[in-house]
Hints:
With about 90 residues, the protein is mostly helical. Helix content is about 70%, strand content about 0%. The protein is built from three helices and no strands. Helix 2 runs antiparallel to helix 3. The model has no long low-confidence stretch (mean pLDDT about 85).
Amino acid sequence: MKSIVALQAVVTATPFDGEPSDAELDAIETEMPLILADLDLLDAQIMTIDRPVTELDAQRIRRARNRVLAARRDLTNRAGVALTGGAA
């Protein structure tokens, strides 16, 4: 049976400084429209938790869902262009 102490150097070889890398920050910035659209949808859904859904609430949720779908579509299309490099 191996001791975990023997593997500690392998596990902790790269110290974690607690800060996101530049690549992670760029990924977050790229996904920010989707994140904000998800927040809008969540806000619209939270508003209807403790009361009956009115027609205005249903419309607000439907529009928020459409914004999420549009943001996902745009993010997917942008990722597809970045992967192909635009050269065909």
